[in-house]
Amino acid sequence: MKSFIIGAAIFAAGVAFFLVFYEHPFFDSGPETSAVVEQPGEQVAQPPSVKYPVPQPQPPAQTESAVEPAPTEQEPGSLPEQNQTLEGHLAELIQQQNLFGLLQLDNLIQRFVVTIDSLPEKRVSQHLLPLKPPPGKFMVTGGRISPENSKRYGLYLQMIDTLGIDRAISLYVQFYDRFQAAYRELGYPQGHFNDRFVAVIDHLLATPATDTPLEVVQPLLVYKYADPDLEKLSAGQKMLLRIGAENRNRMESILRELRQRLTSLAETKPG
After folding, report:
1. 103 by DSSP, 3-state: which?
2. Do β-strands 216-217 and 224-225 pair in parallel, antiparallel, or remain unpaired?
3. What is the mean pLDDT of residues 42-65?
């Protein structure tokens, strides 16, 4: 009986450790500088330099008659507060409800950052996407992705066109400190989200050219690409293939323009 109790206690402790680690895989309590002793001649690792800096937005100009707002008790700048502010901007810019309704508004900034960071990986969590899933079911005809399937993604491209690159970049710069904070909370305390964003775009643009429609197989419940080389691609590259040739060409054109803008933000006047 005693050995059973001891064994149960060890098992419970192991489960507790697993749950804590699984729930917070990127937990970082910050550097413990008091425990670090620099040895003579030892080189301290330098934080990575910023490849593509993002300028600080200029505050709006105030007129002489402008009245300063009354101080509030809440400290501005929290992620939830900034998320709500970003939602308001997007609601003004995307006034068509069928397009605005595609956004997952809760924790939108965090969702966006997590998804961008995950696109080069094998899987992207469907529960953390910043956009709702496309309507309808994935369509296959004769063992190939149906050309009709591409119509399911039309609203997303329409939303991008409605927002526009200029306004999207303006919002990105305005709220960049929140994107950066969300990125560092993922476990990159010295990382720079804009640099990561550009690297992910490069990864997506490196998606191999393929003939369409693409062959797929369904060994169990989920479809897979019949070509093993395509099945080995990242989640982001598979998404780019799945939306159809015409949509892919449009998306790649958007990505190229977006990359050009993200890599030259420091050369433009902030505002």
Report:
1. strand
2. antiparallel
3. 69
Task: Give the whole-angstrom CA distance, residue 24 versus residue 222.
Answer: 29
* Secondary structure (3-state) at 29: coil
- Burial of 160 (C-beta count, 10 Å sphere; 0-12/13-18/19+): middle
Element (DSSP H or E) covering residue 217: strand 216-217
Amino acid at 215: E
Closest CA to 137 of 129, 127, 145: 145
Q: Copy the structure tokens of residue 266.
A: 């420091």
The conformation of residue 215, written as its DSSP 8-state character, comes to B
Question: Bridge-partner residues for 217, per DSSP?
Answer: 224
DSSP 122: S
Measured CA to CA, the distance from residue 156 to residue 137 in angstroms comes to 16
Greatest pairwise CA separation for the chain in angstroms: 82
3-state helix, strand, coil split of the chain in percent (to 5) is 50, 5, 45
CA angle 118, 252, 55 (to 5 degrees): 70
At 183-232, the pLDDT tens digits run: 999 999 999 999 999 999 999 999 999 877 899 998 888 899 999 999 99
Sequence-distant contacts of 28-31: CB under 8 A, at least 24 apart: 28/187, 28/189, 30/189
pLDDT for 126 equals 87
Percent of the chain at pLDDT > 90 equals 60
Going by the DSSP 8-state scheme, the letter that residue 140 receives in this structure is E
Among 185, 162, 176, 27, smallest CA distance to 91 is for: 162
Task: State residue 228's pLDDT score.
Answer: 94
CA distance 160 to 103: 12
> b vs e for 47-59, b when ≥16 Cβ sit within 10 Å of the residue's Cβ?
eeeeebebeeeee
Mutual angle of helices 235-242 and 245-262, in 10-degree steps: 130
